[in-house]
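Q: Sequence in, structure out?
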Amino acid sequence: NKPQNRRIPVPALPISSGLLAGQSFPSTLVGDESLSRRPMARVADPLNAMGGGLRTTEGHAPIHIEPAGSGLHGIEYTLPVASAQLKSALLIAGLYADGDVEITEPGVSRDHTERMLSAMGVDVVRSGNVVKLSRPTHLKPLDIEVPSDLSSAAFFLVSASITPESDVILPGVGVNATRDGVLTILEQMGAQIERLNPRTCGGEPVADLRVTAAQLKGLSVAPELVPLAIDEFPVLFIAAAAATGRSRFVGLAELRHKESDRISAMVEGLRTLGVAADEGEDWVEIEGGPLTSGQVDSYHDHRIAMAFAVAGAIAQGVVEIARPENIATSFPNFVELGNNIGMHLELD
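A: Exactly. Output:
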């Protein structure tokens, strides 16, 4: 058939790069303003080492992908950071590779891709920090029931924890052990979270989460928990601001390379709301105390915007959030659900 130029929405750029690197047609991946600031050379380099034809735009999106002339081949690769997206990109590219893909991780990262591929008959084996995939001859079709996202649930877990007299149940939330660090950290802070009706859904552990209001206390987060909660730190910083005492988070360098520099964006916003917060290259310290009113900038980052929406639930006045449009990127009904539990959110 004649090639067509079509603009198609795709999931995360690194994972899409891994999928498209093995195809017989050219592709161009274009991100929005925030995604275009994220470093993409770290996914292009190993895919090119597999024989891919990726070209970034000065290390960022757009990413131009040409068909691999002689096909993809296997690779042994050590990830520079614990990143589920980068790992998944290489594993999915491995479905098209002539040879095994062996990935060594510096720490634990989410394993949803390995679970899904295994359920489809792919030979994926983990030994310690090493994941190895052998190219399958075919994939088995299967029905997948996707659990509710723990990263999205985190905003309501924190909101219910810090708002007096709250009692909220979040049904069918995925509680995969490679990404449940937010639950562990909140529980260490004193949050009251029950896992009800535990079950398996589409190969993933799932539970209904009941969270009731509690007086949180500051803590120092163990570095090994960081990869298990990397996307939830913006809202965990709000939990720390509402807690009694000082909290310290270390090993957060990856947060500077998300849709925004999430360390600086959160510290800046917390200071605007009267919270004592400080930052270093890979650490944040927050002294719990009352939150005042003010206008904070989300820097087009959906998680920053939603985190400060949670802060507004307990602030002594109105919290205005600039540039919140990207909430729709990951959670289009966030405002509706937030208002259903009494968060009093308005979108102008």
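The mean pLDDT is 93.
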